[in-house]
């Protein structure tokens, strides 16, 4: 009927891409039609609003496209490596040449933000890429996608689980101390599978 699910997606788009608050986005849409997102969707939109507000207040945007393309800001933040979790010509089209003049090392992950996309083949290679750079005192790695709420956080969660031996819940809690994240349902299932696999591996290590 177009009053809940599709309306929620439109509201999220306006908040992320047009920098509107939730109330402003609702008012903008209601100028054209009545909408009524269900209580669960409204709760998720309020969480999204808090995340976006935190980013703007702190001028961080650590996972967002705008920061990834702002080379002056990257230099100021001391970023030495970039992981683009939304790479590809039809998504966020950055590449090594974009950062050649600022000596930033680039890694692209051509991931689509939908529940059916298999992100698992990228978990270990990306985690290893980050791990090899993070121990260096002068190195900082920026992981980003389009909005910074699903693909990039999923890659960071996988890194924390693989390289820092955190459980999925512990990894989520670690990130949530700084910002809210919303991996899609498919990515969460894949991360739960990774969590189970790593837990079994740790258990076997202890037994040997």
TrEMBL record:
Protein keywords: Signal
Pfam families: DSPc
Molecular-function GO term, any one: protein tyrosine/serine/threonine phosphatase activity
Signal sequence region: 1-25
Superkingdom field: Eukaryota
One GO-annotated biological process of the protein: negative regulation of MAPK cascade
Any Gene Ontology CC annotation: cytoplasm
Organism this protein belongs to: Anguilla anguilla (European freshwater eel)
Protein family per UniProt: Belongs to the protein-tyrosine phosphatase family. Non-receptor class dual specificity subfamily.
Segments traversing the membrane: none
Protein name in the entry: Dual specificity protein phosphatase
Record domain Tyrosine specific protein phosphatases: where: 120-179
Residue intervals of the Tyrosine-protein phosphatase domain: 51-200
Lineage: Eukaryota, Metazoa, Chordata, Craniata, Vertebrata
Residue numbers annotated as active site: 145 (phosphocysteine intermediate)
